[in-house]
Amino acid sequence: MVENPEIREKLKEAAWGQSQVTDASHLLVFASYSDIQENDIDSFINLNATEKGIEASQLQGYGDFIKSKILPLPQETKQIWLDKQCYIALGNLLNVAAELKIDTTPMEGFDPKQFDEILGLEKLGLKSTVVATLGYRSVEDASALGPKVRKSQEDLFAVI
């Protein structure tokens, strides 16, 4: 979550001047690992065990399974998988915010390399994947009252 107004102003420029980066009450940058290693999976398994009140050894098979499926993948394929994890989290954020009547704007319209540089993500082993702004709609926002443009269900879904 980016709160610093000066940093948000820099991020706005890296997001092609989109005003919601600085106007929204909250700005979240979802960042994925640049790579995933065995110790990252071990940390995930340990966290799982701690939260479930069990020994990590009870989840060793699960950890070994994850390692066998993820670690051998080519880096590009791993990165796609890692990025998709951010979209799962984004989907949960959007659902919860909608339930709470909080407006959100998910954004891919930004330069990830510039975001990474501004936020110092590379030295943390992270890369920006997707951005979301949150807040309450301004009564002065003329576009908020306009019709939403959505594809029809027939165009959107294929029934098989």
Explain this structure to me?
The chain is of the alpha+beta class and 160 residues long. It has one domain: 3-Layer(aba) Sandwich (NADH Oxidase). 48% of the residues lie in helices and 14% in strands. The protein contains 7 helices and 3 strands. The protein has helices at residues 5-14, 20-23, 38-52, 60-70, 75-99, 112-119, 153-156, and strands spanning 26-33, 103-107, 126-135. α1 runs antiparallel to α6 (112-119). The longest helix is centred in the middle third of the chain and has 25 residues, at 75-99. The radius of gyration is 19 Å and the shape is globular.
List the helices and strands and how they pair.
Layout: H1 5-14, H2 20-23, E1 26-33, H3 38-52, H4 60-70, H5 75-99, E2 103-107, H6 112-119, E3 126-135, H7 153-156
Antiparallel strand pairs: 1-3, 2-3
Helix pairs in contact: 1-6, 3-4
